[in-house]
Write a sequence for this structure.
């Protein structure tokens, strides 16, 4: 293994979020050491203890070499990964789950794929070793993701991925957005690839997969969809909806006015005048919200550009 001093030019940083995985962290670390030492380049292994309440942190302290980031409480996998990305010093960042279902021996193949000109390579667990319920939910999520996100990735939920470090220079993560990192990076212009990897059944510890995670993932999928479509032009969404409502309210109100003036239409105890006013006001509110959102986006991008520059060439 190459030395990992502060002055070392680290090639690989392995980022692993863990939560109550005391039976898995030691054998996982041993597998990683075997694979990384065989690669022959300097590396670091970063575990993020996401508020574990069992003996995970004690087991992590017995490992060497290792860097441990310990959260005060459970903040979730996305927060843990974000902390790991910020702490990583390697030119290439490798992520995987701490439950040992991802096989570290797939890492060399992912790195070889990365060298083909990609900046992100995502693992594809094409033969899942999960329960029927997880299979069903994953298939449904994949259908929705294909409709909303359109990232061309078969398995965005696979944590086994490799990235160039520059991918995270302007990336902010929140919620459950770790699943959509390849999609977000793809929208920014990074080249994203995919490779089939093995998937092992869980043999120790308990799954963290539950209905709350499904709901959060769906909400974040909607958020990512909105960000992809309208992050630079929110007025196109809210303004269009506002103009539609304003038009409907105006036409309805004008129709009622004509009916009352020329045809003696009685509007007493009728809901239609109230509905016309409500739709008109809702349209105005949507349009004004779009204007305000558009102003905020422009202020945001004054300091942070809405584009990503890969390289700059200069000929003298």
């Amino acid at each position: 293994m190459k030395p990992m001093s502060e002055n070392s030019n680290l090639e690989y940083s392995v980022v692993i979020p863990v939560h109550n995985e005391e039976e898995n962290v030691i054998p996982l670390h041993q597998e990683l050491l075997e694979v990384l030492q065989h690669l022959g380049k300097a590396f670091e292994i970063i575990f993020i203890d996401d508020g574990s309440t069992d003996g995970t942190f004690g087991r992590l302290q017995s490992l060497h070499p290792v860097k441990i980031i310990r959260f005060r409480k459970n903040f979730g996998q996305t927060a843990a990964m974000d902390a790991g990305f910020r702490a990583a010093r390697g030119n290439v960042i490798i992520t995987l789950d701490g439950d040992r279902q991802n096989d570290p021996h797939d890492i060399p193949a992912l790195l070889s794929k990365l060298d083909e000109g990609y900046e992100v390579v995502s693992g594809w667990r094409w033969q899942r070793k999960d329960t029927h319920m997880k299979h069903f939910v994953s298939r449904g999520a994949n259908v929705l993701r294909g409709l909303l996100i359109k990232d061309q990735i078969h398995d965005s939920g696979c944590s086994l991925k490799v990235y160039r470090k520059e991918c995270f220079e302007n990336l902010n993560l929140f919620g459950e957005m770790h699943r959509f990192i390849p999609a977000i990076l793809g929208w920014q212009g990074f080249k994203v690839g995919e490779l089939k990897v093995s998937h092992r059944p869980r043999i120790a510890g308990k799954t963290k997969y539950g209905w709350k995670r499904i709901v959060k993932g769906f909400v974040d999928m909607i958020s990512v969809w909105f960000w992809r479509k309208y992050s630079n032009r929110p007025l196109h969404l809210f303004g269009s909806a506002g103009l539609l409502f304003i038009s409907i309210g105006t036409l309805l109100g004008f129709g009622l006015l004509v009916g009352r003036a020329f045809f003696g239409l009685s509007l007493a105890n009728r809901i239609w005048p109230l509905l016309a006013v409500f739709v008109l006001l809702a349209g105005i509110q949507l349009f004004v919200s779009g204007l305000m959102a558009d102003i905020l986006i422009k202020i945001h991008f004054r300091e942070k550009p809405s584009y990503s520059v890969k390289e700059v060439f200069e000929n003298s």
About this structure: The mean pLDDT is 83. The beta strands are 12-18, 43-49, 67-70, 92-95, 120-125, 161-164, 192-197. The radius of gyration is 26 Å. DSSP finds nine helices and seven strands in the chain.
